[in-house]
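Design review, sub-item: ligand-bound model
Attendees: FS, YL, KQ
YL presented the inputs for the protoporphyrin IX containing FE complex:
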Amino acid sequence: MRGDTRAGLLWLPAVAGVGVAAGLGVYGRLHHPSRLSIFGELGRPIVIKAGLTTAVVILAVVQLISAFALYGRLPSRSWTPALHRWSGRLAVLLSLPVAVHCLYAFGFGFDSPRVLAHSVLGCLFYGAFAAKMLIVSQPDNGRAWVLPLAGGLVFTALAGLWLTSALWFFVS
Ligand code: HEM
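KQ shared the predicted structure:
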């Protein structure tokens, strides 16, 4: 019974994650794209966004390595938990202005398979992140594999959205 209750708690992160991803997608479809840039006079939005997204990916690699250390797969230090937490917080913080610009200036794009994949992965990234945060807040959910799965999903979505946006910009 207790196990059922704990497993039942996993529905909350799953439903919240799908809700966040779908909510962003629906907003991106309904909102009329506006060319007004939230970056003002700082520079060309595409350059700022590609740079910020690359910084987010570097921080996500720090997240991945420190997660392996926390799971005992790599040597860990006393500061490894703090490194994991702060690199994650900074990564999400840096991603926010980029995503706001994407949603505000472009919305959910269908123009090409690359743009569609990027839009889907952008929504998935925040959905998986929301689910992961809820899973972290319930460490006793009775499923040890859930947290690495959610973390892996966040990382994979980010890697995909970087490939379909920042890397595409740098090489094209
Ligand atoms: C929240 C959901 C998201 C949606 C719906 C979305 C949608 C889009 C669209 C339609 C484009 C234009 C693509 C083109 O025409 O080439 C774009 C560009 C871009 N996106 Fe996103 N995006 C999202 C999230 C993100 C996130 C989380 C990041 C990075 C952390 C990101 C990084 C970029 C970059 C670097 C570009 C290229 C720069 C530009 O064209 O302005 N996006 N996005």
